[in-house]
Structure formats: C-alpha cells, structure tokens
Amino acid sequence: MLLHDTGNLKRRDDVSGIGAKYTAVHVDRSAAFARRFLGAHGYSEADPAATGSMIRCTGVAVNLSRIAFGHPIDRLLGFALGPADLLGQMAAPD
Q: How far apart are CA 82 and CA 63, in angstroms?
C-alpha cells in the first residue's frame, strides 16, 4: 500500500511551504491521489475504491466502523495497514 502517504506530496504548482502542511488532510488527499492514479492507469473502478478505503484506515482519529469496504480482504488489509503505519511512525528515530 505504497500510496497511503501520497497526500503529503506537493503539486508542481504549489511553491509555498513543505508537504508537511498537508498533515491534517493527507489521508483524504492520498485517497484522491490513488483514485486519480489508478484510474489513469487502467485499473477497474473497484480498485481505487478499495485502495481509498484502506488508506482511510491510516487516519489518526479514524472511526473504522464508518469505512465502507467492498470485500472482506479489503477490510483485512486496511485494518493491517492502519496499525502498521502508526507503528512505523512511532519507530522512526526522527
């Protein structure tokens, strides 16, 4: 799930500040990026939706019961991704 933090990336025309300015909204931005990217590369409509649901599991104050999953495996992967993302941040020395 390499797309889960793409919401921190700045667009080419965004010349002010750094990507960290998107921290509070990066989950939604990441899901939107995944939708555009996967759609542009020929993936089915279900793939960006599943990816967005999984990405939403990485939110800090997420209510997991409010996330819609199209398939049980999407839910399993999302529920694994959320804690993995948090543990990765906690383990970072910086």
A: 11
* pLDDT of the chain, 94 residues: tens digit per residue: 689 999 999 999 999 999 999 999 999 999 999 999 999 999 998 999 999 999 999 998 999 999 999 999 999 999 999 999 999 888 878 7
Contact 38, 51 (CB under 8 A): yes
Three-state SS for the chain is CCCCCHHHCCCCCCCCCCHHHHHHHHHHHHHHHHHHHHHHCCCCCHHHHHHHHHHHCCCCCCCHHHCCCCCHHHHHHHHHHHHHHHHHHHHCCC
Q: What is the pTM of this model?
A: 0.88
What residue ranges do the domains of the chain occupy? 6-10+18-91
CA distance 26 to 3: 11
